[in-house]
Amino acid sequence: METAAIKRIQELSKILLEVGAMLMASGANSARIRTTILRIAEAYGYNAELLITHRALMLTVFDEEIDYFHSSLKRTSPHGANFKVVSGISRMSWRIVEEKWTYEQVWTELNRLRSLPHYPRLVILATVALAGASFCRLFGGGPVEMLACFIATFAGLFVRQEAVKKGFNAYLCIFFAAFTSCLIAGASVKFHIGVNPEHAFATSVLYLIPGIPLINSLSDLLDGNIMNGLVRGMNGLMIAFSIALGMLCTILIYNL
């Protein structure tokens, strides 16, 4: 009987770590990860303790009835943003509580969430570029500046995606993207294309701004997760530095 209970705890630990890793990789903050994992553990009648770092999760699941605990560790993949996964796991956790899901049902749902299709690449490129052009308009740019910003954003994001595929360092990918976008938008400043070409130059890198890392950093700091907050804040600052370095290289090349 105890052997079966131990196997259930070990299986639950795998599920909880997979949930945490998916949430971490999808842009969830530490409080949401901890709350979701503890909610699922309690739904199955177990206590859990979780240690969250920037690149790993350490979990201990404890069963008071048989006086057994199981500790396990899982490295997390590089962080991004996928709110479909975050909201899907949140809904799943509540359904586990209310409907008493089996482990097999949980694994099926996790596999479904993991395999959710992304938007087509061309759609992502076009919509992000359109957002950049919209920011340019908000900053006072005209049609010519908006077109320059659209092209610069489109090309920069394309370069970043290709750099990620090639396995470059994440900060180098940001630098390549910022440099490409500024190189294209900076040409309009260099050759005086448009009324206010500097608006296109300034807004061509806004798609790279690390909003999620900085927001999660502040959220973690306010929740008392000081280490995670500092690490995520430093990650955001490194991204900002990479963007600034890309812009600086363009300014030096064009002598703006």
TrEMBL record:
GO terms for cellular component: plasma membrane. It holds the Pfam family ThrE. It is a multi-pass membrane protein. The keyword Transmembrane helix applies. Signal peptide: none annotated. The chain crosses the membrane at residues 141-159, 171-193, 199-222, 234-254. Residues 15-251 form the Threonine/serine exporter-like N-terminal domain. One of its GO terms (biological process) is succinate transport. Keywords: Cell membrane, Membrane, Transmembrane, Transmembrane helix. It is found in: Cell membrane. Belongs to the ThrE exporter (TC 2.A.79) family. This is Uncharacterized membrane protein YjjP (DUF1212 family). It comes from Mangrovibacterium diazotrophicum. The lineage of its organism: Bacteria, Pseudomonadati, Bacteroidota, Bacteroidia, Marinilabiliales.
